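Exercise 3.2. Students should predict the tertiary structure of the chain below and write it as C-alpha cells, then compare their answer with the key that follows.

Predict this chain's 3D structure.
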Amino acid sequence: METILKNNDAAANALIDPYLTWAKGQWWYGENCGSDLYNKLRLRDANGDNTRQRLIDEVLLPEQNHRCCYCMRHIDDRMDDASIEHIVPQHTTINAEMNHYFTARSGGLNSGNVCLTPDYVRRGDVGAPYPHHVAYHNFSVACRDCNSSRGHYEIEPIFLFAGIHGEVVYNDRTGEAEWTLDPAYVNPVPELPTIEKVGVNRPLLKAIRSVWFYAKRNGLLPATAGREELIYGAVGDSLDADPEMRDDDFDAYLSLNTDEMWNKLLKFDYFG
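Answer key:
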C-alpha cells in the first residue's frame, strides 16, 4: 500500500470552484443538497466536459499512480474502473463524526479544507473549507470492488498515512496483507480496522498477490508464463506457509484459471 500525497489543490479546485459557483444558482441547492451536489458533478460544463471525470483523469488518478487506494489494482481512465471514494462518508451529518478523520496521520485532510456540506451552504461563499460531498481532500479513487466493500463503514484513511508502505506489508507466500512493527509481524486491533472492513484480504485479492509473488520469485511474468504453472505453484507455496488453507481461498486460486479473472490479475502488476 502506498501513501497518497494530496498536494494538487490548485488543479482540483480550478475544476470544483466553477462548479460550486454554478450550483449555488440552482433550485436544488440548499442545506440538504449533499447527494445532489455530488451526483450533478458529472454534468457537463460549458465546454462539454464531465467535471467528475476530469477530476479523476487529471488529478486523482495521477496522484495515485493510477492505482486503487486500497488494493493497488491498476485503474484505467474510465468510469467503469474508477469510482470516487469519499473518505469522510457522504452520509456524515455531524461534526463529531467528521472530526474523527482529522488526525495527525490523515495527511492534508483537516477542518481547513473540508467541512460539512450544510455548514458550507450556510456560509454562502465559494472556497475552503469545501463541502465534504465534493471536497478534493475528501476524494480518493478506488476500484469499484473496494468501494463496494467499504460501503458506509467508518474507517481509518490509512492510504493517507505517511509511513503506510512500511506498516502494511504482504506475505509473499499467502498474499495476505499484514500490519507490521519492524521486525516482527503483529496483529494490532485499531479502532477502525480498515483492512478488514474494506476486504483487502478477501480470498481473490490474496490469491492474486500470491501468484504475482510466486512469479517474481521464479523470474516469470504473468503476462507470458503458463497460467496453470503460476496458479498451482502459488497454491503450493501458500500451502507450505499455511497448511490449513480454507476452501474459499483455494477456490479463489482456481477462479483465476479463466480469461476474465486472469485479465483482472494482470492489473495488479504493483506486486510484480
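Discussion points: The radius of gyration is 20 Å. Residues 54 and 62 are 11 Å apart (CA to CA).
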